Amino acid sequence: MAAANGPVERVEAFFGENLRLGVEGAHRPAAPLMGAGLPPACQERLMGLHLEQVEPVRAAVRQLGAPEPALTADSIAGMPHTALAAVDGGAPLATVTERTLVLVRRCLAPLGSMVHAPEEGH
Question: What is d(CA 29, CA 11) in angstroms, rounded to the nearest whole number?
């Protein structure tokens, strides 16, 4: 993310890296941990780590002036989970990544603007 030019590219880098790590299995332990009945202090620490991980996305969304920046950032940060489920279901990683990044860009567009992906002919 540090090498990205601008907030949109930082969010795209976050998404791409999270998806890559997820395909490699790096995020697989998170779901069982959250439902494992951990003590409150451990659950708080996991949530703190998650917020720390998502903060660059939140900062980029704030920088772009998107409405409801926390909600927008958290929604984008949740997209890798859905994308990974699609890959796990047999969808090609490249297709899932490309399509989801189109959606991410739309989330980051100012209200009232029309953002079109190149494959949509605009």
Answer: 23
